[in-house]
Write a structure and sequence with these properties.
heterodimer; A: 116 residues; mainly beta; Immunoglobulin-like; 7-stranded mixed β-sheet; 4-stranded antiparallel β-sheet; 13 strands; B: 115 residues
Chain lengths: 116, 115
């Protein structure tokens, strides 16, 4: 009964490849996010979707393309992978309620991407 | 723009002693403030939040935090630390008035509780 689940947990791939990370939440939330955690553990938001609509795109290279088929899923596709894309990618979700506010975000376990 | 500062990269404390992890924030409007904990090779776990109301908020595992508007701080505290509290702690802020409900995180503070 995992709340926010990501697959795969580990991903090792060569430069230039295209890969996807999947995320699903069973909390009934309407907002989902992708965060990137670098080697120094710094966390930075990449994207935010609300009800399948892109809300935030934090100047992420267009090699990164999120796809939200429904509000329970937010997948991340990465084209032409580069060494600098190596990081841990976290999916998260929250629920928007009155006044434009959201509940706290719940995070998945992370996907450790290593580009070689 | 919103930002969070955690001035200490690491905090060392003996088991049974009080633990404090510092956080200051900057937002243009009213803040929502959060603390998360990350154990090795795990995702972030929510500890507590300040939305409105009492400045002292209590959360999971005996942690609490105090919102101080004048000092723009939201320090995390635990009266008696356990070895199992050793982890990476993140403070985060959301500007209530900002679009997108973006959470901005501090750089994290590693807590090491020694037996």
């Amino acid at each position: 009964d995992t709340a926010v689940s990501q697959t795969p947990k580990y991903l090792v791939t060569q430069m230039g490849n295209d890969k996807s990370i999947k995320c699903e939440q069973n909390l009934g939330h309407d907002t989902m996010y992708w965060y990137k955690q670098d080697s120094k553990k710094f966390l930075k938001i990449m994207f935010s979707y609300n009800n399948k609509e892109l809300i935030i795109n934090e100047t992420v290279p267009n090699r990164f393309s999120p796809k939200s088929p429904d509000k329970a899923h937010l997948n991340l596709h990465i084209n032409s992978l580069e060494l600098g894309d190596s990081a841990v990618y976290f999916c998260a979700s929250s629920q928007r309620y009155g006044g434009g506010r959201n509940t706290e975000a719940f995070f998945g376990q992370g996907t450790r991407l290593t580009v070689v | 723009a919103q930002s969070v500062a955690q001035p200490e990269d690491q905090v060392n404390v003996a088991e049974g002693n009080p633990l404090t992890v510092k956080c200051t924030y900057s937002v243009s409007g009213n803040p929502y403030l959060f603390w998360y904990v990350q154990y090795p090779n795990r995702g972030l776990q929510f500890l507590l939040k300040y939305i409105t109301g009492d400045n002292l908020v209590k959360g999971s595992y005996g942690f609490e935090a105090e919102f101080n508007k004048s000092q723009t701080s939201f320090h995390l505290k635990k009266p008696s630390a356990l070895v199992s509290d050793s982890a990476l702690y993140f403070c985060a802020v959301r500007d209530v008035g900002a679009a997108g409900n973006k959470l901005t995180f501090g750089g994290g503070t590693r807590v090491l509780v020694k037996p």
